[in-house]
Sequence to fold (299 residues):
Amino acid sequence: MLKNFKQMLTHVSKMERRKIAVAMAQDSEVLLALNAAYSAGLGDAILVGDRTEIIHRAEEENINIKNFEIVDIKDEKKCVREAIELVRSGEAQVIMKGICSTANFLKGILNKEYGLRDSEVLSHLAIFESPNYPKLLFMSDAAMNIAPDLKTKIGITNNAIKAAHALGYKKPKVAILSAVEKVNAENMPSSAEAAIMAKMAERGQLPAAIVDGPLALDNALSPKANQVKGLYSPVGGKADICIVPNIEAGNIFYKLMTILGNALVAGIILGAAVPVVLTSRADSENAKFLSIATALAVS
Fold:
């Protein structure tokens, strides 16, 4: 069980070295993150994009471009398709978005003819290392599914559980979040969906995890909050994974953790045939680096 990013980096460095296919790699921050991953012994990269621009960006950042393979393609959609083909052929085990548009990148991954879709639901998983929590904290979904229904939430949860398994969490504790810990089906549908998922888990429909809900965030993360409220939960106060009710809650959770909570963060897309690194322009170079490491760890 990997409790922090340092342990994760050590773990990945001992794994068989994998390759990342990058669509439109002519981006300085992406190249810096890939170079950091290469220098740390985590993995290699195949850079798909405009060769001249890639070399120019690398020279500006003092990156030895000879450490990377370049596939010279200028057209954006062709770059995305080539990166996908590198994964489909087995030459790469992770795919990453460069400066191509998110819409074209995801459209390629979801393409029924040549894409990488592997499950019904693609979802974003954020992983935080907080100075105020004793282990890594997983959260989903802050970036892909806007207002997931029950079926989609189950898919999001299964994706997160599989990723936690890959990082050594044999039976992760999953908190299905709402604003309260009691069911209020009429006024707060997320509380009823959480209760349904908890019962499903009891009956083996969400295997290899301990799932409880509805739980407010303090119930999920604070043992004291459970004690004060007189709440007993097998997940309460020690959650490994938090499943948020919608993208607004996830977005706020993510930004509070990083901006005010000083947490380190990584983010990947799950549900494709391989992990997908799709970082925000606002993410730091370190966040991009940790996202690459996380994708390699679960690949």
The chain has a mean pLDDT of 95. The longest helix spans residues 150-166. The chain has two domains: 5-118+272-298, 123-264.
